[in-house]
Amino acid sequence: MTPPTIDRIFDAVVRIDTACCLTFVSDQGLRWFGVDSLTRLPPDFTELLHAEDAEAFRSQVAEQSESFACDARIVRQGNELWVNIRAYLLADARQYMLCIIDISQWKVGDASLRHAAEHDELTGLPNRTYLKRAFEQLAKRGVKPFSVALLDLDGFKKVNDTFGHPIGDAVLKETTRRLAKVIGPNDILARLGGDEFVILLEGSAAAASSQLTNVLLAIARPYDTAPHNAYLGVSIGVAEYPMHGEDYSTVLKNADTAMYYSKNAGKNRVSVFTESNESADFSIKAAIHKGIQEGEFYLEYQPQFDINRKLVGAEALMRWTSHTFGRVPPDKFIPIVEDSGLMPFLGKWALRYACHQLKQLRELMPDFVMSVNVSPVQFGADDFDALVLEAISEAGIDPNRLVLEITESTLMKSQEKTERALAKLRELGIRFSIDDFGTGFSSLAYLTRLPVSSIKVDKAFIRAIEKPGKGSFADEKLVTAMINLAHSIDLKVVAEGVETEGQFDFLRKSGCNLIQGYLLGKPISGAALASLLKAAA
Ligand code: C2E
Ligand code: CA
Ligand code: CA
To answer: Closest Cα to atom 4, ligand 1: which residue?
Structure first.
């Protein structure tokens, strides 16, 4: 009777020295590794391990403890195998004996059990248990802020009641596919049950809510539920960790409260949790969300003229006619849009829209120039340059025909980042103009360093230029000085808010390059601008 050898119990028995070099592999071990001699294996045992496990193994060996055990992946003939390794320091303390057992069968079972416990059967999405764990891991990793968005479908019950459960299930699966497409690569999508979903997103609730407008749009598309399409909406509530709660259940509860604001405010919208759920801003914010979905925003174009009154370009200006509030001026809604995190979304839309308009006008006047306002919030975003490029190439316009209007405060913010973005876009031919010039820091010195091509003298200065003789001499001198200074560093000057012939005359004499104002043209629709161009051509 042959005595049981260690080889019968373990899949491989291996000895390594304290530098992890292989010194011995049992016969069965060699067969298990798929080689016929020790020399066919790499000298360093950790090279047989998966890169993610090798480091941990090496540090265990370095500790020189009497014994240790770990699970690791061995890469054998291109396949990964989970093994359990028990290591014993041998008497001479210069070697470890490793007893290796193939546990890949158990690992698979283990993983699938865990998967089943943490996932939803119908959609395959993570469930509550998973979500809670993911939340706690994010918190533990010190990621903050991050946001929990609770989604509840509007009109799902009706679908279920009208078409039956199989169709209801299909709608939930389709919803899962649509949501999976619009969420970011690091976001986690889970299903809580019924028609409730959760998205876990890194970043503030404000930032999250702007991304979530894509979710509204994705769900708004008709569902193909033969024989008739079904139309659903989604009410979303967002709460932020740690601002709206320090633990999972509090944040989820507050997201739920915010979701109910959305339901009560008319459904199909995103609401961010607020301690006091009233605030005037809140309702205007909700209206902005709704306005975006319902196409209440549009652009008007104010023509710009050269000093001979020839039409040469236009500034795109955002307009909002709200069902609830009527016509809201941009000075009022833009700060709220910025504050609620929707500016990148709306700004991107405006840019794309203006580029498309420009493309249509190009046929009528090839060198027509379009100016678009860019909020500091947009400019600060990491992907701003990519976004501008996308808008340009999508519309197929020449970058030389686009001017981005930025304010002095944009330039003052995070100078290095701003300068990089400016330089990159300038290289591609896009021009920049400093809006509201004179109201901010007004240091022409920094302009010499930046790739800016013009300044727009703020209308407050233009207003001060009255009819000849009546205007304040000091104000007029100031405008002349601005123009001269700008010209001395090769910048063009645009005057905005020009309302009288007197102002126009003064500006022409001072050498101002472009004129914009009610005197020569008010902001008008794209169609009206096109007719103006036709007449001018
Ligand atoms: P702004 O960039 O200084 O735009 C010029 C404003 O002056 C416009 O007001 C325009 O209608 C007005 N204006 C033009 N000519 C005259 C005139 O002769 N007299 C007077 N009194 N006003 C004149 P609007 O359209 O109300 O826009 C206000 C501000 O809202 C803009 O000031 C700009 O800062 C912001 N804004 C507008 N559209 C956008 C946009 O798409 N994106 C961003 N980020 N901001 C925008
Ligand atoms: Ca402007
Ligand atoms: Ca301005």
So the answer is: 317
